Structures are given as structure tokens and as C-alpha cells.
What we know:
CATH architecture: Roll
CATH class: Mainly Beta
Number of helices: 0
Number of strands: 10
Low-confidence stretches: none
Shape: elongated
Largest sheet: 6 strands, antiparallel
Radius of gyration: 17 Å
Order of helices and strands: EEEEEEEEEE
Structural class: mainly beta
Number of domains: 1
Distance between the termini: 17 Å
Strand order of the largest sheet: 6-3-2-1-7-8
CATH topology: SH3 type barrels
Strand content: 35-45%
Amino acid sequence: MEKIRKGDKVFVTAGKDKGKQGTVLRVLSNSTLVVEGINRVKKHERANPMTGAAGGIVSKEMPLQRSNVLVVNPVTNKGDRVGIKTLEDGSRVRVFRSNGEMVDS
């Protein structure tokens, strides 16, 4: 079970965007993820007339290491570590380490 999923609101703990919050857009397989509005870079794109893509300088989000983000706890509105707890019926849920509340309420 993944501790950080698509759609989670996360807090950045390291890098040039330290202290910012954003929503996870994509979780990539190699322990990286793309966060909305975080780690934006300017990339030079070549025009492609076959697809109708215009050329120029494009601003886009690049992947970020999963270890550099924390899931935002809605109670405290701060970043918090996430653990996995098994319920009595055998299902596994994500819980915040600080207060033990479920992430997906």
C-alpha cells in the first residue's frame, strides 16, 4: 500500500520549494511524484506541426522525490508522517502518526 497517493495534499520539506503545499498529480514508479505548482522548470520545446504543438519555452512541473514531501493533516494543517494500520475486518488504512486519525475519512 502506498503512503502517498494521487490527489493527496502534500507539504514540501526540502528543495527550492520548501514550505509550499500542493496536490499530487501523478505518482511515478521510481519513488518520485509530480506535485501541482511545485518544482516548476522552463523547458525549451520544439514545434511539431504533425500534432499542432507550438514551439517555445514552456513551464512545467518536474518529478520530486517522495521522501521530500509530507501529507498535510487537515486537523493541524501541517505536514505529517503517514503509517498503515490494519483494522479488525482485515482492511488496511492510512493513518497520521501524530494523532492516529485516518487519512481517507
